[in-house]
Amino acid sequence: MSAILEEQKVLKGGEFLIANTDPSATFTPEDFDEDQQMVKQMVQDFIDQNIVPNLDKIEKQEDMIAVKLLDQMAELGLLGTHMPEAFGGMEMDTNTNTLICDVLGGSSGSFTVSFAAHTGIGMLPILYYGTEKQKEDWLPRLITGELKAAYCLTEPGSGSDAIGAKTTAMPDGDEWVLNGQKMWISNAGFADVFIVFAQAHGDKFTGFIVPRNLKGLTLGAEEDKLGIKGSSTRQVFFENVRIPAENYLGEVGKGHLIAFNVLNVGRFKLHALSIGGSRRALTIGINYANERIQFGQAIANFGAIKYKIAESAIQIFTGESSLYRVSQQIQDMNTALKADGKTYAEAKRLSAEEYAIECALLKFIGSELLDYTVDEVLQIHGGMGYSEETMAPRMYRDARINRIYEGTNEINRLLSVDMLLRRAMKGALDIVGPAWNVQKELATPVDNSVPEGVYGAEIKAVGEFKKAILMVVGAAAKAQMDGKLNLKEEQEIIMNVADMLADLLNAESTLLRLQKLRMTGKATQPQEVLDAVLKVYVHDANARIAKNGIDAVAGFAEGELLTTFVNGIRRFTSYPPQNVKAFRRVVADHCIAANEYAL
User: Fold this and answer.
1) What pLDDT was estimated at residue 3?
2) What is the pLDDT of residues 91-100, one digit of tens each?
3) d(CA 194, CA 143)
4) Is the pLDDT confidence value at 192 over 80?
5) What are the structural domain ranges in the chain?
6) What backbone torsions phi and psi does residue 78 show, to the nearest 5 degrees?
7) Is 441 annotated in the active site?
8) How far is CA 365 from the centre of its chain?
9) What percentage of the chain's residues is helix, strand, coil (to nearest 5)?
10) What is the pTM of this model?
11) Which of 105-109, 149-153, 364-368, 548-552 has the lowest mean pLDDT?
12) CA–CA gap between residue 504 and residue 498 (Å, rounded)
């Protein structure tokens, strides 16, 4: 497998920190072929014809509208695009499935929660860990929409600490007896089957397939939520619920593997949905800015409004660049694993697991760029942004949950760095060698040269960002080995590093995308606009990486050592200042003229 990946020039998970990527190996939205464009159009047509006219019904959960929409999607095959053909699925590639989520995120409101809960956390545990009989019994009916799925992990006393669940599953003859309580369960109001996590034998965290129509399984009332009101969210209670002995998933006591590996995909898809939602929100904001007249002109003409439009557009473009870059990596890994003899399910699970670091980063990148965008769109609306006559309040409320579920953004920040360090300790990633080389470089004269050609300054900046991160990570690891630091107790430092990694991922992904567009000539937008996006992002990332790096080292170093680290960080964040005001106006003016997000 590794030979195949090397031949394809595909980086392993987390390797973007220590290795360079060939732009030609990077997938971009401009690379979609005719078949993928047809799928995109089919999904958009479904949204326009079936979801948009019913958004108010969805918001009020009227007429079992979510169930009806899922059934209609099943008729188009959209509940099984990621499932094996053997069970009635379509086996579409990763990039196409990413595109489907991207498009659905644009105009589907809180119905996206119902869709994602069913097709993701509801179906994947069975695909990844079910026996052949379990797959044959459940997947075909989930794909056709005959059955709807829900995922029961969270409890009143266990949120982020999922494996601390109190729900129990005790053996009794040829059955398990479930007792306990789950909360915040999406799709609970209409689900036919629940993936339930419980302590088998009282202390072995395990996943189970639990049909709804069992005695002792009851539901709480619909939660009155801040947002995503159109999604069914209820508590689920188990009182001596008896399920067949063979209904456990995977291995008894290994339920954490199911939960974590399914969440990798959920985090990735959440980013895709967030990108689509951000595009749609910004377009609504631009429409209003062009229509709203103040002081004798459209407010879109004012610099303060242009800043909001441009900054949102830049974050969307960079987040989109990272999304499809990682999507291609997952797809390439999937292909390599199948060529190595893995089954369809094994390849899907292992390829997502390989890029767990990137999925964690994307989760908080996407949810926070969506939050930023809907907040600024509401602000662009001014007083009307507080009126339910506009979409702004609903988008604002719906976006907020994304920073909480699929693992809070704080948890994902901590996980991304923890997984990186674990891989380094296991030898899966050689961080020590590159970090040591960075330390030695600090003793050499500063190299002020810039690579020749287009984007030379940006190429150098991205390479220097990697050195800054490696220096901070290496210094923190050394301090821990010397007994001067316990990273488990210094979450602020870990979060500094996570934010540095996120900026690196976005900056490099955007650079690779623009390099490839110049190579292929596939750019659909003016080059000056795309270049402006890159320059603004790298300029701002440079400042953020410098601040996060200095904040991190100041948390465990002092005296001459701290001075050395700070000088090193400043050395590696020396991207020249850019006229970001002018570049943002280039981006804003382009979108304002198009009356939509147009990158």
Assistant:
1) 43
2) 999 999 999 9
3) 15
4) yes
5) 2-23+256-411, 31-143, 149-249, 414-580
6) -80, -5
7) no
8) 7
9) 65, 10, 25
10) 0.96
11) 105-109
12) 10
pLDDT bucket at 9, cuts 50 / 70 / 90: low
What are the helix (H) ranges across 341-455?
344-354, 356-381, 392-400, 409-426, 432-441
pLDDT, greater one: 51 or 163: 51
Helices (H), 303-355: 303-339, 344-354
Distance of CA 121 to the CA centre of its chain: 14
**Distances from the Cα of 257 to the Cα of 27, 163, 251, 273, angstroms:** 29, 10, 9, 24
DSSP lists the bridge partners of residue 334 as none
149-249 under CATH 3.30.420.270, yes or no:
no
CB-based contact 562:553 (threshold 8 Å): yes
The domain 414-580 having CATH identifier 2.30.130.10: the answer here is no
Q: Which residues pair with 320 in a beta bridge?
A: none
* Cβ pair 40, 31 in contact under 8 A: no
Dist. CA 346–CA 569, nearest whole Å: 42
Count of CB atoms within 10 A of residue 445's CB? Answer: 6
Token pair, residue 318, equals: 């960079």
Q: Given this structure, which CATH class describes domain 2-23+256-411?
A: mainly alpha
Please state, in angstroms and rounded to a whole number, the distance separating the CA atoms of residues 61 and 55: 10
Q: Which of the residues 406, 458, 464, 508 is marked catalytic?
A: 406
- What confidence category does residue 157 fall into, taking pLDDT thresholds of 50, 70 and 90? confident
Q: What is the pLDDT of residue 448?
A: 87
Tell me what the pLDDT averaged over the chain comes to.
95
Distance between CA atoms of residues 116 and 275, nearest Å:
15
Identify the CATH class of 31-143: mainly alpha
B/e letters for 270-294, b = 16+ CB within 10 Å, e = fewer, are bbbbbbbbbbbbbbbbbebbbebee
**CA triplet 93, 98, 102: central angle to 5 degrees?**
150
pLDDT per position as a tens digit, 347-376: 999 999 999 999 999 999 999 999 999 999
The pLDDT tens digits for 482-501 are 888 999 899 999 999 999 99
Instruction: Write the pLDDT tens digit of every residue in 39-62.
Output: 999 999 999 999 999 999 999 999
> What's the burial of 420, exposed, middle or buried (CB within 10 Å: 0-12/13-18/19+)?
buried
Domains 2-23+256-411 and 414-580 are alike in CATH topology: yes
Q: How far is CA 41 from CA 49, 95, 103, 413, in A?
A: 12, 15, 9, 35
